Inverse folding.
């Protein structure tokens, strides 16, 4: 299913089912794709649900998704993701990395004891050869009343990082990895992803 440039009509034409199906039905179906039945926008990339932890002392793949070819086919196309990590109650160094394709970025690496990391990450295609990465990390420790976390630190990991050219004409695997001193030192809890296809006006 693809968009067809609407037909320019001429006086006296006979309307056929093929014309109506192509220029009315099919184009309305294309317009419907990002909208649910109540008229609200839908997230175009699904969330990765459930928990996954690191294994042993090596670097372990956690949640990931594949950014399909041509999804970010226009400058200004972006995706935004949220994720939460639980860090074990020990003195082991815990390292969390983010990957897009073969490029990796260290989000956290410290002997953090019993905390949660809340990550917000935004990638925007600026041009065919320039892509920007913004990451914000909030670390919480301690427990307040009613089981709510007490925020102990708020850190901008990267305000404006230029990635190497990302080939958005090919599939790109986007993932987080975890590495600690023991199994389940790092547990990734959830990773919802929102896609903004095309330029932001």
């Amino acid at each position: 299913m693809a968009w067809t440039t609407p037909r320019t009509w001429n006086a006296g034409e006979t309307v056929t089912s093929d014309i109506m199906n192509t220029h009315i039905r099919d184009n309305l179906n294309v317009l419907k794709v990002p909208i649910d039945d109540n008229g609200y926008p839908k997230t175009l990339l699904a969330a990765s649900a459930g928990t996954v932890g690191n294994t042993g002392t090596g670097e372990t793949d956690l949640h990931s998704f594949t950014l399909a070819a041509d999804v970010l086919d226009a400058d200004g196309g972006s995706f935004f993701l949220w994720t939460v990590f639980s860090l074990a109650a020990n003195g082991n160094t815990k390292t969390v990395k983010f990957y897009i394709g073969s490029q990796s970025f260290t989000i956290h690496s410290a002997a953090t004891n019993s905390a949660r990391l809340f990550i917000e990450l935004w990638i925007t295609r600026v041009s065919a050869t320039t892509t920007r990465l913004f990451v914000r990390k909030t670390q919480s420790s301690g427990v307040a009343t009613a089981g709510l976390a007490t925020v102990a630190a708020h850190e901008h990991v990267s305000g404006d990082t230029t990635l190497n050219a990302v080939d958005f004409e090919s599939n790109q695997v986007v993932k987080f990895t975890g590495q600690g001193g023991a199994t389940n030192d790092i547990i990734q809890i959830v990773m919802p992803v929102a896609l903004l296809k095309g330029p932001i006006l």
About this structure: The CA atoms of residues 181 and 199 lie 43 Å apart. The domain at 45-196 is CATH 2.60.120 (Jelly Rolls). The mean pLDDT is 81. The radius of gyration is 22 Å.
